[in-house]
Amino acid sequence: MSHRLKAALVVAAGLLLLSACTGPKAEEKPTAGAGPETTQPSGPLRVAVISHGTAGDAFWNVVKNGAEEAGRQLDVQVEYNSDGDPGNQAKLIDNAVAQRVGGLVVSMANPEALKTSIENAVRAGIPVITINSGEDKSAGYGALTHVGQNETIAGEEAGKKFRELGKKKLLCVVHEAGNVGQAQRCDGAKTGFAGDVQTLQVDISNPTDAESRIRGAVQTDSTLDAVLTLNSQVAARAVSAIKAVGSTAQVGTFDLNTDVVGAIKAGDVVFAVDQQQYEQGYLPVQFLKLYRDNANVVGGGKPVLTGPDLVDKSTVDTVGKYVQRGTR
């Protein structure tokens, strides 16, 4: 065999061996922890919670407690801010987007005022979950889901409760002008009560005037035998107003605080519609963590309901201890 032929055979054998060893290219594995594309793809998740709560509002303090506790448990950085003015609330959302947070939790008492800011957040790749109010606008604005109670259903339950108590004329006290959720509560109460329902506008920022307006309403119309307030702080004012004029009207309210718990025990408030707002802070942080880490979307296109749960004398002792610690 010639030298050239031997060399050619060696080269061919080498090429055959190389082909056998190489084989088909292995399939590349996805990067660990890969999930939906967001503005914060790695490291601790940073979530901005932006509500329409006013300073010192006991209700929103519980929402904040829920969000911060979820952050501690899940290693999520939670930043809570609030402003009762819709324009200022929109600016808080814009600031969070500019800071490229990893997720947004927003209450929408005035959805139209927040529409552009929320849509800008979604376009920037920031997942948004809405809470508390604005359920019917949430999906249209691009939010992943809505967490809260259905205000119309909650109002209906309150109205039914008063009807079961034999009441004939109901006053529904609205404390935030332009808040769509409060309008839905009163509308629901009208349906559930199936009787004479009137509305009264007061300003939660002026509690003395709110009490004066409620007092004037029950004093002017002695046939009013039921008063539904939409906030625990307003409930205390309603109780004082009714006692001041010697009215026999009974008070029911939305939301709980320690004063309402005490008033239920004393018989001054007959029930409270509890929307379990701790969950409205806690669950969205958990949902955003699941979305970032595992592409999970909760709710199947429907809102995740946190209420209503009616608290009265039969349940107030159990629930009251959690109100005391700031989780109900």
Automatic annotation (TrEMBL):
What's the domain of life for this entry? Bacteria
The question of whether Transport is a record keyword is answered with yes
Q: Where are the transmembrane segments?
A: none
The record's PROSITE patterns line, in alphabetical order, gives: PROKAR_LIPOPROTEIN
Q: Does the keyword Signal apply?
A: yes
Cell location: Cell envelope
Stretches assigned to the Periplasmic binding protein domain: 48-290
Identify the keywords attached in UniProt to this record, alphabetized: Signal, Sugar transport, Transport
Signal peptide limits: 1-26
The region called Disordered is annotated at 25-44
Q: Which protein family is it in? A: Belongs to the bacterial solute-binding protein 2 family.
What is the name of this protein?
Simple sugar transport system substrate-binding protein
Q: Which organism is it from?
A: Amycolatopsis roodepoortensis
